[in-house]
Amino acid sequence: MLQSSPPHESQWSPAVPTQRSSKDLAGPWHSEAACRRDEAGLFFAPSQEPTAARLSREQAAKSVCARCPVLLECREHALLQPEPYGVWGGLTAAERRVVLSRRRRRDAAAGGRPADISRIA
């Protein structure tokens, strides 16, 4: 998630830096990301954010992700890093933990072979 003009106003301040350098991103896919035009605070939880505000913010972030041409690349980046915070590739940190857990179980059941990335969340 990269920052530009803030379309989403919030009374909460982000708990993480609002802008990432290009070295933090996994590859050239990020230049096509829909989130380049949105406020970083939309994608990252402010400290002490009430539950209703968090759910609303996450839904708004997921709406941006849903129209993103590099959704799968972003998601895979977040799963491979793994990104511990924020909405990446249309998934929250908790949702990414579930996907990673499922991948580990699937890999273990397949005899340790990594699962086909294109078929998983």
Automatic annotation (TrEMBL):
[4Fe-4S] cluster binds at C35, C65, C68, C74. Pfam families: Whib. Residues 1-20 have a biased composition (Polar residues). Residues 34-98 form the 4Fe-4S Wbl-type domain. Residues 1-30, 102-121 are annotated as: Disordered. Keywords: 4Fe-4S, Cytoplasm, Disulfide bond, DNA-binding, Iron, Iron-sulfur, Metal-binding, Transcription, Transcription regulation. InterPro entries: 4FE4S_WBL (IPR034768), Whib (IPR003482). It is found in: Cytoplasm. One of its GO terms (molecular function) is protein-disulfide reductase [NAD(P)H] activity. Binds 1 [4Fe-4S] cluster per subunit. Following nitrosylation of the [4Fe-4S] cluster binds 1 [4Fe-8(NO)] cluster per subunit. One of its GO terms (cellular component) is cytoplasm. Upon Fe-S cluster removal intramolecular disulfide bonds are formed. The Fe-S cluster can be nitrosylated by nitric oxide (NO). GO terms for biological process: cell redox homeostasis; negative regulation of DNA-templated transcription. Its cofactor is [4Fe-4S] cluster. Belongs to the WhiB family. Acts as a transcriptional regulator. Probably redox-responsive. The apo- but not holo-form probably binds DNA. This is Transcriptional regulator WhiB. It comes from Streptomyces radicis.
